[in-house]
């Protein structure tokens, strides 16, 4: 599975960004799609995930601010990020998990929150 992430950039605190992750296969075949991030000097962490039946899961630090969604027709998963904080600065990675294959990762996209 190939994943193409996009949408990162520089934004001021309190601003918004939307990340996109386009998959090379039908996302119906993907059990879980998720967004992870890795900040400077930190370990990679799960930000949000969505299952093939639409169930979602969020890190406590982003609940109420980030929303993960999917467009099945476009084989794309989105991460809408609102009320961004400097601590959200990180490289964001898209991940796809298929039980019979395992995990696939997209290239990272940099998100920088700074005034």
Output the structural class: mainly beta
Mean pLDDT: 95
SSE series: EEEEEEEEEEE
**DSSP summary, beta strand count:** 11
Unreliable residue stretches: none
Strand-residue proportion: over 45%
Helical proportion? under 10%
Shape: globular
Compute the gyration radius: what is it? Answer: 13 Å
Distance between the termini: 37 Å
How can the largest sheet be summarized? 7 strands, mixed
Alpha plus pi helix count: 0
Describe this protein's structure.
The chain has 115 residues and is mostly beta strands. The protein is built from no helices and 11 strands. Strands 2, 4, 5, 6, 9, 10 and 11 form a 7-stranded mixed sheet that branches. It has a 4-stranded antiparallel sheet with strand order 1-3-8-7, with no helix packed on it. Strand 4 and strand 5 form a beta hairpin. The radius of gyration is 13 Å and the shape is globular. The model has no long low-confidence stretch (mean pLDDT 95).
